[in-house]
Amino acid sequence: MSQPTPLPLVFDEPRGRRKPPRHLADLTPTERAERLVELGLPAFRAKQLSTHYFARLVDDPAQMTDLPAGQRAELVAGLLPELMTPLRTSEADKGTTRKTLWKLFDGALVESVLMRYPERATMCVSSQAGCGMACPFCATGQGGLQRNMSTAEIVEQVVAGARSLARGEVPGGPGRVSNVVFMGMGEPLANYRAVVGAVRRLTDPAPNGLGMSARGVTVSTVGLVPRMLQLAEEGIPVTLALSLHAPDDELRNELVPINTRYSVAETVEAAWTYARTTKRRVSIEYAMMRDINDQAHRADLLADVLNSYGDWGWVHVNLIPLNEVPGSRFTRSREEDMDEFVRRLEARGVPTTVRDTRGSEIDAACGQLAATAD
Asked: Which positions are annotated as active-site residues?
């Protein structure tokens, strides 16, 4: 097998880069008021701006008629600076799947995906421009990490999707974002502070935030064990999704290079600790790759690993038919092999589903986001 790509020792904000402008979504309600005072503006206007942004989903200052015309531009510049510009939107599934390519303030490119279903609407958001985890089967991982995104840049992806739904721009009539998954570009727990800040903004009651249920938010990780354990203590009952992709260290070292630092046993134990602490079932993500990780014996081994922590329903396996990246040696598993994998897991009492590969024709499915403007 090939040697895993070495990984950085630090998973927090890279230094030496210009930071995005401060936005009210980066700040607590108290900090928003303090920010306006710093600018010589009335503190009480912070709540009005928060209401426009989070509750009314307004993005045109001309519609903020409760703000004095003479101060409106200053107020908006102070707490609602423009964070990102949409460059292109691609649609699939008769317009109910929409991928947006965003240009950030420094020219970095990221992508988000809105997926509308009959019973829910889900935003898949990016947390980093690029990704430093170097998983060889993932398009994002091949480009490397450019930078972390700010809390507000993450939140703005959701707010933009909420606006599109509220304005009836997505087939199905006006609606709202019910679920957010941190499964876009980047490793969310490598940008821990900003991601937790974004989760708090998403779940803070309106008008301080979007007022979403934490149970509708899923944070994925390839297995940054210290951050998984830290997230368990945050008091926010989000769903944790562990991208495992292999039940044994030899293979996972190749597929998910962070495994050379945190083994399968350590990673799964951290996931179990998260479930035990939060009383929230963990999702195990497993991309099915032909003749690489889809053998029957690996299904049995995966069941052994997960069942070693008891059978109280702490985990659910989500098999993902690999969304192939052009030129990659990794290809999708045969249907019969996926069926057998499911059968073996379920026979061992492990709840298992196969994920919908929605958006694959516009490179919007899991593992395909590469953020090219070409």
From this structure: 111, 366
